[in-house]
TrEMBL record:
Keyword terms of this UniProt record: Signal
Domain called ADYC: residue spans: 101-294
Domain of life: Bacteria
UniProt name for this protein: ADYC domain-containing protein
Signal peptide: 1-22
InterPro entries: ADYC (IPR045426)
Keyword Signal: yes
UniProt keyword Signal present: yes
Native source species: Nannocystis punicea
Amino acid sequence: MSANFAPALPLSIALFAVLAAACAPDTEEQMFRDTGQPTFNSPEIDDAPFPELSLSGQPNSAGVTLVGLRDPGNVIHPLRTNGRDEIVVYDASETTILYRGANLVGWDLVLEKDGDELSGTITHYNGDAPAWSDEGRPLTTYVIKFEGDEPGNFKNVCPDVMGSPDAPVVTLIVGETYDRVLKKVDLIDGDWVTFACSGQAAYKAKALGYEQGEFFADTMAPATRAQQDATLKMITADFCGTGDSFTEENTPIRWENTAGTVTLPQPGEPGYVPTILEAVWNDERALCLSNPRRGDLGKVEAICPNLLPHCDDIDWATEPHEWVSYKPVQ
């Protein structure tokens, strides 16, 4: 069984946002603030964000295009993937993989924005980052860093750990992009690859097994768009389905899904903590809400176009849903 926890838009697998690999802070998604201002945590090189890149060189939402991978001999190669989350380089016929994994350490990821070339160096590869589901496959993560304004001042491409250039916190999600405002899957398209930092909901959804690159549960297909959307809503605490996230860094939360691939430890098992029910989730919003993780029920009600029922007041177990989230009792 996996212990679930979450810092602010966390996923599931431990208890406090500072445990293990699942402890990434929730600063990528738009979070509820009294100012209403969103903050983001997408990877970037010198102010060139690459939350997603087109393998064919189309510009992303920030006008950034992928040039390719530059080897130590200064030769540019097309960036490809193994269909899951590993960067690979093929031969000219694109039938045989020549380089992958640790063999790409020292290579540069080369981008272009406004006619300027930008690059970050792959300095570390980890093919065994822990999943957050009970028996999920390990994730592949990379360190990609770039040199700042001063020589020797290297920065991580993930803004939340920019000052820790050697933190392996970037993973690839092949074949889809995300709407970070509405907290939903955007494109499902094999030409696009999402680069997600561990503080992002996309990373966490992948760690839970909800992504295009992995068959879900006992099916022979990935989680559906609706299942993925429900996961993003739950992680980001988008109770109202409006894109407003009622969560902050280091906010503990636990969860379990209806498929039984993410479960909560029971009394007497390692990682168990007492909890109270927070909310029940489908792909649009919370079906019901009892105990918001930040305790800000009034703020939630002020945003929601329709008042959410208390979970004790409806028979939610008979309603189609993907997740049930719980608030640890302190």
